[in-house]
Amino acid sequence: MARLNRKIIASTLPETLIAMLIISIAFAISISVYISVVSSADYYQKQYIHQLLNKIAMEVKNGNPQEIKEFDGLVIRSNLQPYQNNERLNVLHVVALDQEDHKIAEQKEIIYLDQWQEE
Amino acid sequence: MRKLILSRKKIKASALFYALTVALLMSIFMSAVIFLADINGFHFSNLELREQLLLNAHSGINILRASNDNPTSELDLFGDANDYVKLTKKQWGLFEVGVSKAYVGDYQLTRSAQFGYTPLDRTIAIYLADNNKPLSLSGHTFVKGTVYLPKAGVSRAYIEGQSFIGKQLIEGNIQQSNKILPEINKSLVQYNLNRLDGIQNNIPIEEWPDTLTRSFSGESAILYSDEPIIIDQKYKGNIIIGSDSKVTVSNQAQLEDVLIYAPEIEIQDRFNGNLQLFASRSIQIGQQCHLSYPSAVCLLANTSPAPFIRISQRAIIDGIVLVYQVNKNKEDPLLSIEQDALLKGQVYVDGALELKGSVYGNVICSKFLLRTPSSIYENHLLNATIDYSKLSPHYVGSGLLASQSEKKIVKWLD
Predict the structure, then answer these.
(1) Rounded to whole angstroms, how far apart are CA atoms B340 and A41?
(2) Are B14 and A89 inside 8 Å of each other by CB?
(3) Are residues A108 and B77, on separate chains, in Cβ contact within 8 Å?
(4) Residue B38 CA to chain centroid, in angstroms?
(5) Could you give the CA distance from residue B414 to residue B19 in angstroms, rounded to a whole number?
(6) What is the rounded CA–CA span in Å between residue A9 and residue A16?
(7) pTM
(8) CA-nearest residue of chain B to A116?
(9) Confidence at residue B387, expressed as pLDDT on a 0 to 100 scale
(10) Cα(B58)–Cα(B109) distance, rounded to whole angstroms?
(11) Within 10 A of A85 (CB to CB), how many other CB atoms are there?
(12) Domain locations in chain B?
């Protein structure tokens, strides 16, 4: 049997147990903080909804109006209303609603109705 | 015995140390995650606010586009006391500039746009006033588009040893023109005449900076001198340059969106920039100059001898060239477009047009003039090109004519 000449770095059992306990606690706290940060900050969802609203608004401006569209459990409604009786101007209103019909986000803009949009 | 051995052999134990280090690193990492999440949230809410301001500012620009009246000072866009815009509109040379300042709470954002008008009929190549003389074509002259000609019509001519070379004289419809040119927008001309007659200086000549950028949301910077001036500086935006005698623009100058008013204006060879020029005596555009879209070269002629515009060889002008006679009793002003010069846009000449280069767009003129070493010919074109189809379908001109079609955005300014 070979004999070791070098010193072996090792820990005692209670030390190892305490270390494991500290790491577990730290890891548990970290995960809970990370999850709470990610879930509480709803800007990821907001960003997504924001992009959807922009996309729908762009489709309407390109002459492809769709009143209701559904995306991942969200309902996006868009409508065009004349603005102050001006035949060239319209208010484009795009709203995102959840499944309970609660408004999550909206976007309003006055758009100019080009001739090609009328055709 | 065993106790003795253990006391002699010390075993290094560092698990606790490592555990604390890892815990510390994890806490630093998590702090960074929380910090980044916070920054991201802040950034997103800023972005959201900015986007709302941008939409409101664009809405304001659309309101300005749809209306010809002077805008109300402050407007609650949707009547919800949340989205306000402040709208202003002003004349900028041959174009209009609209400024929309959007407010939400303490935040604000400004956008400004230059407005113009699409030509009523894009397919017009020539409108030649009926002065009882036919239009005569010779050499490699090419005309494409609808042409409005005198009752005498169009004919071939043999000039300087060159007869007409081509399959047909006009590639397009021929209609009869009137004795007078289509009516010009007099208020637009008058506005620029007033500017030409008197400009109030607001920056003394000794304080003229080498570089100046001025937003359209504020007052114009007016650089005026009663002496001849040479411009070799870098100016951009809401800036008006004027002189009581002559303005020379060096090819070292970098000018964008700038207006120049002077009796005489000279643009040196190989200048590149975006300008609107207004003169009463003469405008000379040097060789290989490029005045980019939307530029304007305007002669508001009220002096004698005959005022003129000369566009030299290989110069390119994207925009509008206007020659207007303030006093009809004086000698006809002249627009001379030399060989290989190119004009992309609209040409309106209340006077004579000598065309040896090309026009991609439409030409409205009282008469054509052709000067050769041996003679002067009226209503003759030699080796000239007028082609409406080579003008971009997205071209937007100015409200030059009294009858215009739809107002459009020419360009976003700031």
Answers:
(1) 63
(2) no
(3) yes
(4) 44
(5) 57
(6) 13
(7) 0.83
(8) B406
(9) 96
(10) 10
(11) 6
(12) 17-117, 124-405
